[in-house]
Amino acid sequence: MRDLYAHLTDEELAEAEKNFKRYWEIVIRIYERSIGRPVLTGLLLNPSIVPDPPDPRRQRIEQHKEILAMRRKKFDSRAGSTHKKGRFAS
Fold first, then answer.
1. Do 39 and 50 meet the contact criterion of CB atoms below 8 Å apart?
2. Tens of pLDDT along 54-63?
3. What is the rounded distance in angstroms from the CA atom of residue 57 to the CA atom of residue 12?
4. How far apart (Å, rounded) are the C-alpha atoms in residues 41 and 47?
């Protein structure tokens, strides 16, 4: 949570984590009631099995890499078609 909310104080972060856990407990309880059986009780007993949320910074980096790759490919295709027409063509 610290990565997402770096501006929070330790007290605010502790409260946010508590609220987040309470929210998921309610969501799980609603889901279990809707299907009529317990499903994720181990999740409540062992919160370490909760997957980490995706890192938005890493997602942005991957998006930029994809954009650069597309631009590089576009540039290479243009440069390849006009490269020998330049001043130093043999």
1. no
2. 677 888 888 9
3. 23
4. 10
